[in-house]
Design goal:
Mean pLDDT: 88
CATH superfamily of the largest domain: Aminohydrolase, N-terminal nucleophile (Ntn) domain
Distance between the termini: 20 Å
Radius of gyration: 23 Å
Bound molecules: adenosine monophosphate
CATH topology of the largest domain: Glutamine Phosphoribosylpyrophosphate, subunit 1, domain 1
CATH class of the largest domain: Alpha Beta
Strand content: 15-25%
Structural class: alpha+beta
Shape: globular
CATH architecture of the largest domain: 4-Layer Sandwich
Amino acid sequence: MEQLDLVRENLIFEEDKQEEACGVFGIYSNDSEFEAAALTYLGLYALQHRGQESAGIVVSDGQHFLVHKNMGLVSNVFNRDIIDGLKGRMAIGHVRYSTTGSSFLANAQPLMARCSKGTLAVAHNGNLVNAEELRKKLEDSGSVFQSTTDTEVIINLIARHSQETLCNAFLKAAEDLQGSYSLVLMSKDTLIGLRDPFGVRPLCLGKLADAYVISSESCVFSSMGGHFIRDINPGEMIVIDKDGIKSYYLTEKRTQATCVFEYIYFARPDSNIDGLNVHLSRKAMGRELAKQFNREADVVIAVPDTGRSAAMGFAEASGIPYDIGLIKNPYMGRTFIQPHQKMRDIGVRIKLNPVEGVLKDKRVVIIDDSIVRGTTSGKIIHLLREAGAKEVHMCISAPPITYPCYYGIDTSVRKELIASAHKVEDIRTFIEADSLTYLTLEGLYRAVQPNKDLCVACFNGDFPIPIPKENHKYSLEEE
Ligand code: AMP
């Protein structure tokens, strides 16, 4: 427990979280008047939850590229003048939270490069597990890298196949890639989307009037006034050019293993992934969790925002009324508040404030989607008690996270995952809850039915894509 207390003391509320994967977007029209940049801006705005570190758009008018990217939120990186200046009928865009490569502008995407195929722009969501090995091979054969991202490795691999058409060069390059990748790529006149053979990260296809759209998530289409066509299948490459749209497959061997954390936490509730709505899947997780909870309580509340859908399902199945017990300030960016103990508590309150009238003298069930290092839960439970809660029962709509992610989620190294080395009862003591219930893996599978082709490696260590030995840096033993 001493070790746990040390973790609690040394981490601050804002800086200690795992963060999301990235978001990618692409749009293609044959109409030379089409304002691809403005629509990409809207698309990225709807994907902002997938990455807040940097944002970028590359447009093409069929001949020339223009690019704008910077660190920060979509609404800070772009303004009306910048968007108006990005003239083009096709575009790709990216919002990034760093999964590989540290945070500096050279790593902001889309990345652009001139090669035998002309200029290419690429945006990537995911993480290659063999990027280091590929980078080394490419450097040994003369490639020079400007960034530290996997994406530049991909561009260099494409460039090596100079005799091939762009599509074939991309397919050939993808044969060398191991790991997760949902990619959009643009040449001056072609838009390509590719989802890795395991389909780890989502990628889907939609339409807006005559324009085709490729996006990480389906919530984008309706928010732009367009419509969803279908998910891009694992291992499928979609090519859009003046002749229309074509589909190719990377390999016959496809074993779908879509990241279950997309359903649990990452994706927006109004998105559908592989045919399943995210909000409804979270509600089902909450219903399953309620079946495991065998206590009496007066009110069910959620940790906003991601715990909300599961809390509704929990309330529905348990008969315990749902209420709003915590209010989140929707205008928060990162707090500038620094980690003195007192200030830290203020930091929590600025972001989340309890509704005393709902909590006072109540036996409260609080639902969150996950516990990573355990610092958030402890702080929230403290807030609830200060607001007068008589009992606080923490219920988590996912199993304990015991393994790090190698496929694009910036999960902590393994020893920082509280559940990797501590039993549920120890975690309960650490967060000072009256009880702690995690959803079982079986319950999770029931909740995401009929999808069962999922990566659940963060819960059971069963990694569908082999991790090269030199990457085993996350294991407890080797650190
Ligand atoms: P922790 O304090 O490290 O236990 O973080 C748990 C909190 O982080 C929960 O409220 C989750 O909703 C949230 N969370 C889970 N995964 C992520 C992620 N990848 N990025 C940011 N927050 C996350």
